[in-house]
Design a protein that fits this description.
With 138 residues, this protein is of the alpha+beta class. The protein is built from 3 helices and 8 strands; from the N terminus they run βαβββαβαβββ. The protein has one domain: 2,3-Dihydroxybiphenyl 1,2-Dioxygenase, domain 1 (Roll), CATH 3.10.180. The protein is globular, with a radius of gyration of 15 Å. This is Glyoxalase.
Length: 138
């Protein structure tokens, strides 16, 4: 199955400072900024576009339960995940399972932009958090 880079997720401690850097230093445009309090997300998210390439800035809103807060505590701020767009998320999940890899079922969701996503288990990806996603409604 074809996979293309969709975006890179970056864990940040101060979202306003990160947005300022992306806009004033990298020349980015902010596409959206929103807050998700969904269990397993608990983050403020800013979607930045630099010449057609997307970065999601992820700032924890709950330092107890947010996976982004856990990530920052364990590894520090920086690249959290790399997302690959696939044509069909369900088929891509079946494909990786057939290859003996695991997905993190509790991360499967649809975000506010209609993007369906799931994370592969980092134990099977040499420690890198990989997201598979699709946009079934265009």
């Amino acid at each position: 199955m074809k996979k293309t880079l969709d975006h890179i997720g970056v864990a940040v401690r101060q979202i306003d400072e990160a947005i300022d850097f992306y806009i004033h230093v990298l020349g980015a445009t902010m596409i959206d900024r929103y807050r998700s309090e969904a269990p397993g997300v608990e983050s403020e998210i800013a979607i930045m576009d630099v010449e057609g390439d997307r970065t999601e800035l992820l700032c924890p809103t709950n330092n107890t339960t947010s996976p982004i807060a856990r990530f920052i505590k364990q590894k520090g701020k920086g690249v959290h995940h790399i997302a690959y767009r696939v044509d069909d998320l369900d088929a891509a999940i079946n494909e990786v399972k057939e290859q003996g890899m695991r997905v993190m079922e509790d991360t499967r969701r649809t975000n506010k932009h209609g993007r369906r996503l799931i994370y592969l288990n980092p134990a099977d990806t040499e420690g890198t958090i990989i997201e598979y996603c699709d946009y079934p409604n265009g």
